[in-house]
Amino acid sequence: MGRSRWAANLNIDQQKAIVQGRGQGRIHLKLIQQFNVPEQTITNRLKRWKFRGDYIKIRKSTGRPRITDLVTDRNILQSVRRNLRPTATDIAREISTPHKAAPSIRTI
């Protein structure tokens, strides 16, 4: 389900104005007409302000943190391309460095 064609991208100043307008006693209908957005947008902005006290969306976590960085991943791929049948132990030994912790065999 994508965004509707009425989904509003309000900047911070507009979001502040919505909260301040509601604080001054304006009803939803007046705010909808003033900002030309759906009622749900006004409701969502007011809920967010009431719950968190700010206007900015917080990014959600992208999931489990990475064990290896991009350089280590690239080195693993290069090792496998050079030798098509290496074991995980061989790869771990080849990519390990003294100043960096080696990933576990299960990670490779």
UniProtKB/TrEMBL annotation:
It is found in: Nucleus. Its main location: nucleus. One of its GO terms (cellular component) is nucleus. This is Uncharacterized protein.
